Structure formats: structure tokens, C-alpha cells
Amino acid sequence: MPVHERGYTHWNPSGARVDPPWLVIARRGLAAPMKRRWPLLLLFAAWVPAIVKGVIVFVRAKAGELMDLAVGGDWTSISPAGFLSFIEGQRFFVFLVTVILGAALVAADRRENGLSLYFSRPISLLDYLGGKVLVVMAGYAAVTLAPSLLLCLFGYLVEPSAASLDLLLLTPLRLLAMTAFVGAGLSLVLLALSSMGTRTVLVVVWWAVLCLAGDAIGNIGDGIGLDSFQYVNFMGHWHNAVSLIMSSEARLPVPPAVSLVLCLALMAGALLVLRNRIKPVEVVV
Amino acid sequence: MSDTASTIRVENLTFAYHRDPALRDVSFTLEQDAVGLLGPNGSGKTTLLRALLGQVAVQPGQVRVGELDMARQAPEGRRLMGWMPERGGIIPGHSGVGLVSYMGELSGMPRQDAMQRAHEVLHFVGLKDERYRPCDTYSQGMRQRLKLACALVHDPQWLLLDEPTSGLDPGGRVDMLELVNDLAGRKGLGVILSTHLLADVEATCNEILVLREGQLLERQPVSPTVVGGRQVFEIAGFGGEEAFVNGLRDLAEVVEQDGRHITAVIDLDSLPDGDDVPMARAVMALLELARTCDYAPRRLRRRPITLADEFYSLVNPEGV
């Protein structure tokens, strides 16, 4: 019988596999922005530096020392420190991708009384948060981890040797650990900002202040010889903290351990905000 | 599913937002049926629905859906319930079918089942031609239908509807009530309809719970035959109105004046025995009172007591 003639019918479960709620939320959270063209273009643009680095790695393998003289510095290296430099260089794309994916994630739910809808389903706060965090982390990984891993593979293929075997083993593990820490931290802070109001534009402004203005102030401090300005370098602290994992020298004139403590405190604060803000209550607008 | 799975049991439910009590010692048991939750704004209707869903931590008190204690087993309990909120409840960025299938997946349905079921319930609520449109472009009537579809997608045993006809035009309201009637009457779903519109309850429910200031005031069937021998008399006239009204207070349960006429609710069963039928005795008693008070009635009209009379007398006990 055609569906329009049946009226209301009871559900007859097929017995197929059921996805956990956090995965459903993450999948939907990623699918919605990807339906538009410009986020895809942005992702493509974010891969351009990786392509450039790949070309340099290739040419260096073929031209040897000559290339090192032409384009020196960490950024072109395929060592763990080189990858950290590369990821630092991606921070503008990280800002754009995370803000596109994450700014509205909680704010829109609060604005539209979506939390009430979510928590009328058999899901927990952990499912909800896990799904939302995964959305932002996936965006972060798409512009940092994914190109780095491909460069690792490319670097090994260009110059396979026992010495470069590290590119297939230890370096990817370091990159994964770094992405998990920085990605989760940035996601939690962004979601906490998103949960503090219902207007997405305010989240964008605050995220820009944290990511870009903090970096700019830190650089101004460097310029005038005031290292203490780097304490407000939000993104810098995350990279400084993971310099321990990446066997790199400190990225800021601040001990990495101090940056690590600051980052952990930020994550704890963000979790506290999220726990208090994400409740199935209606928002009167 | 066993019969007990369809029972909602609420015991001594108390809840406060900060220090403002929203629910006070509410207790009832509901079998799967159409139940109206009536009360003025701020009486605790929505909070009660949230408590049934396990969205607010009730203390003291207990909510059980079937054998499930909603304080500890809320996720399992929510599988048995579909929730249609009054405000919002639409997550932007999805098409109609996308949102409904999303809600299905979150309710524990496999992806393909959720999508297939989303199409079915959207057909049922009358959104089959609009299901691929972005849901943030829907009209108010379509949004209400979409929310009903979201509530139905996982085939719940109970539907919790918070002001489902809010913002609908008369045609949309009738359509929505017909859907609710169909679900409760013919499909066997339990429905709890929270509203302040008495007509919606009369059109769809078999029983009402009346809340005021967080307390459950009354629970009764929606049927004119079960309100006892109480009748409403509307009297208009001139003369000694004040004395007549004072005398009426001894005769009637409720007496109200609105400037045009006097309304009195008289319980016919409480009148002294006599040879005449109770109605005739009530009319004679009124006329006798009018004569002794020098009040000249020029109009005396009787009507059965309605749900509206019951409701207003419950939520506004002071009367005149």
C-alpha cells in the first residue's frame, strides 16, 4: 500500500546497526556546512601550503644542499619540529575552518530551543558534547593533521631510507597526539564561547580576538622587546605546549610547561562553562 | 511491550527553579490515553512535561515511565516518549526530512530506518510535498507539523505536546487536532496535551489534569455527564440585586457578576428534597429568593456546566 494511504503506522525495526549518538551529531554537524561551496573552497585553499611544502620536499630530495640554501628554516623540514612549524603556519586557516564549523554549534541550538529537542532523545550530555567537539576537531585535523600525514608519506616515498622510516612510525604518532590535544582544546574553548550566548556573530568576534589579536599582541611584544606580551598569545600557547611532544624548541619565550598548565586550565574552564550552559531549558527570544 | 510499560506514574513531584517552586507535591498515574494538562500561564505545565522527560532533576519525588525511573534511566525512558516543544524545536540547516531522520537516529534508530520512517511520518502529518525544503523556511503551521513528525519518528508510546496549536490559523488548528485525535483515538498512542486552550482539550482528550501554581488541583474526565448535577444559571434583572446576590451565595456554589448578568453554579443534588424534578426546584428556589429580595428577574437562562466553567472555577477560586 502506498505510504500516503497508510496513515500512521508503527515502526518495524530492521535490526541494522545503530550509530552512537555522538557519531550521528558529528556527522550531521559536518555535513551541513559542507553542502555549501565556499567551505570546500576554503579547505582546498588550506591545502595549498601543504602542496608547496611537498614540492619543496621533492626538490630538496633531488637538488640536495642547494635547496636548503634557497629555502631554509623549519617550515620546509619534514622533521617533527618542521611539522610543528607547518601547523603553526596554518593558524589562519585553523581560525577560519574552526569558526565556520563551530561558532554556531551550540549558539544556534540555544537560540532555536534545540537543546530541549536533543535532550528529549536518549542521549547524554557527553554524547552531545562529544559530537560537537568532533565536528570542530575534524575541521582542525583537515587543515593540519591530514596534510601533515600525507607529507610524511610523501617524504618517505621521495627518499625511502632507514633514517626516514621515522616518517611512517613515530612522526605520525606525534602528530596524532598533538592534534588530539590542540584540537580538543581549541574545540572546547570555541564551544564554550558558542554556549555563552545565542548570537553567532559574537562568537566569531571573540574567537577572532583570541586567535588573531592574541597572536598580533604577542608579536608586537616581541618587536618592542617585551616577552610578557606573549602570555596573551592564545594559539601560541597551544603550540608551545605541544613543542614537548614534537621535540621542538619552545615556540614562545614562556616555558612549555607553563603553557601546558594554561592550556589545561582553559580546557577545564571551558568544560565547566559547557556543563553549566548546556541544559535542556528553553531560551526565550 | 507489557501493559505496565505504557503507564506514567508521578509521585510527590516537587521542583523549583532556583527558589521559585514550579511544581509542588504533584502525584498522579496515567494509563495510555489522551490527557489534557490545563492551567494558566506559569502554572507548571511545561515543567511537568520536562520532568516526565527526565530533563529536570526532581527532588523530592519520582517519575516512572513503565518500570523506568526517569531520575536514573531517563535515556531509556525517552525512547518511549515523543516531545513536541512549544517554542523553537527546529534545528536550522536541515531539510524537513533531514531533521526528522536526524531525530530518529538520535532516538536510536538505524540510519536507513530513520530515513524511511521520516518519509512516512512526514506523509502522515501532511508535509510530503515540502519535506525537501530547508526547515527554517517553513511557515508556522508547517513548523508545528514538522515538530509533530519529529516527535513521532521513533514510534513512541507517549506523545508530550506542549501547546501544539500555538500560532496556528483556524484551519491549521483543526488539522492539528485531527492528527492528535487520530493518534490518540485510533492508533493507541498516549497523549499528554499541555495547553491553556480549553477547546483543544475538549476536542481531543478524555481526561484533564488542572494545574495552578505548581499544584495539581483537579483530575477529572472530559464529559458533561460526569460533572454531577451542577448547572449554570445566568440571571439578569433589576431591583434589589445586592440582597439577591447575597442570598444566592447560600444557594449556589459559585456566584459571579459581570455587570450584565449574574452567573450562579448550583449543585442540584444539594437542593432540599421535594416533589418536583431537581431542575424545577432550582428554578423555584431562585424565583422565591428573587421575590423575597425584591429583585425582578427579566431573564433566566440555564446551561450545563462546561469544561470552561470547571477550569475557571478551579484556577480562580475567589470568584466574586
Top-tier CATH class of the largest domain in chain B: Alpha Beta
Helix content percent band of chain A: 55-70%
Count up the domains of chain B: 2
Number of helices of chain B: 10
- Read across the widest sheet of chain B, the strand sequence of neighbours is 6-7-8-3-9-10
Q: What structural class is derived from the secondary structure elements of chain A?
A: mainly alpha
| Extended strand count of chain A | 0
Features:
heterodimer; A: 285 residues; mainly alpha; globular; B: 320 residues; alpha/beta; Rossmann fold; Alpha-Beta Plaits; 6-stranded mixed beta sheet; 4-stranded antiparallel beta sheet; 14 strands; 28% strand; elongated
Walk me through the structure.
- Chain A is an all-alpha fold and 285 residues long.
- Chain A contains 15 helices and no strands.
- Chain A is globular.
- Chain B is α/β, with parallel strands linked by helices and 320 residues long.
- The longest helix of chain B is centred in the middle third of the chain and has 17 residues, at 170-186.
- The radius of gyration of chain B is 24 Å and the shape is elongated.
- The relative contact order of chain B is 0.13.
- Classes of the chains: A mainly alpha (285), B alpha/beta (320).
- The interface between A and B is large, with 39 and 48 residues.
Concise structural overview:
The complex is a heterodimer of chains A (285) and B (320). Chain A is mainly α. Chain A is built from 15 helices and no strands.
Helix/strand layout:
The complex is a heterodimer of chains A (285) and B (320).
Chain A: H1 3-6, H2 21-34, H3 37-46, H4 48-63, H5 65-70, H6 80-89, H7 91-102, H8 107-111, H9 114-118, H10 125-143, H11 145-158, H12 170-195, H13 200-223, H14 234-241, H15 256-277
Helix pairs in contact in A: 2-10, 3-7, 4-11, 7-10, 7-13, 10-12, 11-12, 12-15, 14-15
Chain B: E1 8-17, E2 20-30, E3 34-38, H1 45-53, E4 62-65, E5 68-69, H2 74-78, E6 81-84, H3 96-106, H4 111-124, H5 140-152, E7 158-162, H6 170-186, E8 190-195, H7 198-204, E9 207-212, E10 215-221, E11 230-239, H8 241-251, E12 254-257, E13 262-267, H9 278-292, E14 295-304, H10 307-315
Parallel strand pairs in B: 3-8, 3-9, 6-7, 7-8
Antiparallel strand pairs in B: 1-2, 1-4, 4-5, 9-10, 11-13, 11-14, 12-13
